[in-house]
Amino acid sequence: MPLSLQQIDALRKITSPSVANAIETFNVRPREQGNLSSDIRALFPELGAVVGYAATCLIRAERGPVEGHRASLFAWWDFVLSLPAPRIIVVHDLDDPRGQGAQWGEVQANIHRALGCVGVVTDGSVRDLDEVRALGFQFCAAHVSVSHANVHMVDFGIPVKVGGVWVKPGDLVHGDQHGVLTLPEEIAPGIPEAVARVEAMERRIISACQAPDFTAEKLKAVYRETAPGPARSGCARPAPIMIEIRLPRLSDATPCTDLAALVIGAERAGPFIKSHLERHQLIVAEADEEIVGLLAYRTDWFQCTLVSVVVVREDFRRKGIAREFFKSVEAVSLSPRLFSSTEETNAPSIRMHTALGFAPSGYIDNLPQGTRELLFYKRIAPRTMPG
After folding, report:
1. Can you tell me the mean pLDDT for 98-112?
2. What top-level class would CATH report for the domain 243-379?
3. I need a labelling partner for 176 at 20 to 30 A (CA). Which of 19, 29, 214, 292 fits?
């Protein structure tokens, strides 16, 4: 479920360093993850922070388009409109070095503002700064260029790596003069409250430092109350476990089979995982060098994409893994129709599908387990091929 306009507005009033501090309090990812490199930051700080859902694309400017390797402009606009508003264009420049031609200037800013976009994040270049600033459209860019050169869009609607961070279509992005970061959507509604808690702690420390009767002992006392872990033990708090969503390797076959056996039985699990590995239709979650979750899907189910199995190890549930799995499938699906299912008695799974934007699409009766299977459907932006 996309954030409300009120929730988006609340996030716009917060600086990106404060958002980064707040994210840390949820322990959903390592502190070094999700932060784009420091060369990408807002060029118009007076406009404030920009917040929106990522519409991703690849561009090239050094040479003109190769036959069959130029994305459809009209299909790109349709894709942008398929995402929740407000939208932020996230662009990876394929040139080496990057920034040889600016895709983004006054004309593109006006077009995309009309399409419900509030800004651009790119490791490439931009131009027409005065005109775009006056429009109220934010540029978070690594370069500024005088020319558009041979710029053209190569592809869109796929995960792109910008500033060292993989950004998927629909990811929530926050940026200002300090830089840009991705914001896990599941914790986004709680960010303002977390910021308030962190800032209250910081104000106590700052007040102690500015007090006329300051002493180091008084500062230590404040630290013991506000940051008891490091202050008392002399070491940092344990870092949260990093969870990586990735494609499987051949060495993952055995742990994937063990996980799949939990939901489809040991007899079916081996052949099931083998076939999905061979078709490259498997996504895994890894933590501490262990496979802790998997999603298997197929793309030949009545010309639609069907999620066959989702399983997450019990001690890694409620960490956003399933949400990231489904985002990954949406990013690669060639069909705009995505189906999934669960037993009609599986209340947690039903709640998860509802939260991810799925709607009930009917039941499958007469199954061996004795309960009906509830089928879910979601209309998504199709993975458009270049051309």
Report:
1. 92
2. alpha beta
3. 29
Asked if residue 318 has pLDDT above 50, the reply is yes
H or E stretch at 363:
strand 359-364
pLDDT in tens, 354-383: 888 899 999 998 877 778 899 999 998 755
* Other residues' Cβ atoms within 10 Å of the Cβ of residue 60: 25
Length of the chain in terms of residues written: 387
3-class DSSP assignment, residue 256 = helix
CA 203/CA 387 separation, integer angstroms: 55
Q: Is the pTM of this model over 0.85?
A: no
Tens of pLDDT along 112-134?
999 999 999 999 999 999 999 99
**CA–CA separation, 213 vs 335, rounded Å?**
67
6's tokens? 């009120």
Tally Cβ neighbours within 10 Å of residue 239.
Answer: 10
Decide if domain 5-191 falls under CATH 3.50.30.40. Answer: yes
pLDDT grade, residue 144 (50/70/90)? Answer: very high
Domain boundaries, the chain: 5-191, 243-379
How far, in Å, are 49, 71, 75, 189 from residue 22 at the CA level?
16, 38, 37, 11
Tokens linked to 383 = 């993975």
Domains 5-191 and 243-379 share a fold: no
Q: Which amino acid is at 244?
A: E
